[in-house]
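Entry 12.
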Amino acid sequence: MVSTFSLAIILATAGWTQLEQAPAAARELTPEARGDIFMARKMYREAIDIYRKQPETHILANKIGIAYHQLTQLDQAKKQYERALKLNSKYPEAINNLGTVYYARKSYRRAISSYRKALVLTPNSASILSNLGTAYFARKKYKDAFETYQRALALDPDVFEHRSTQGVLLQERSVEERAKFHFYLAKTYAKAGITDRALLYMRKAIEEGFREREKFKEDPEFAGLRELPEFKELLLLEPRVL
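Predicted 3D structure (tokens):
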């Protein structure tokens, strides 16, 4: 079994799903809006065709890149993100999305560099911070990942829970890495005082065979949970057979 890591691919305009669900009379069906509806319906090639017929802008180039990204055509996606940046070199969404291409290609250093550049322009983006934390995690920089996840969570308590309506990038990871990833999410939520989610990710980590269970007893972030019956029960769980 493989794990799923989600990286946000960012669109600067209104969420596609909300646009699709709006009453017909309440929305202006411009060509770009029709393209956005196709994106919400995962009809990416149709969206590309519509976007390409419009006057080129950095936002449209980024949207075309996202459509190619969802089709897993990373070379085309990269070209479009780079085109968006030629049209507007200070467009953080395209810089972030370029980082997700580097991440998908396991060029984690370049991904980190891209996310950092994007954060200079938009320092309060929880999704970009989450991406940066995940890239640190991929490089086994767990302290940096943990600190970055804390910053993301402070900005958006749901940043790790919802899948962006603007698209996600799925990454395969080993069971061991997934267990460690869920441990760090449990630790992040525990430090933030979000008990239910801390326990949820603690369960996931243990079920997936997290090997360092003593950390739940030793790391100070879990101090507020240790007297809870649920916490004690989780420590007795056996890993699932995966």
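Annotation: The longest strand covers residues 3-8. DSSP finds 13 helices and two strands in the chain.
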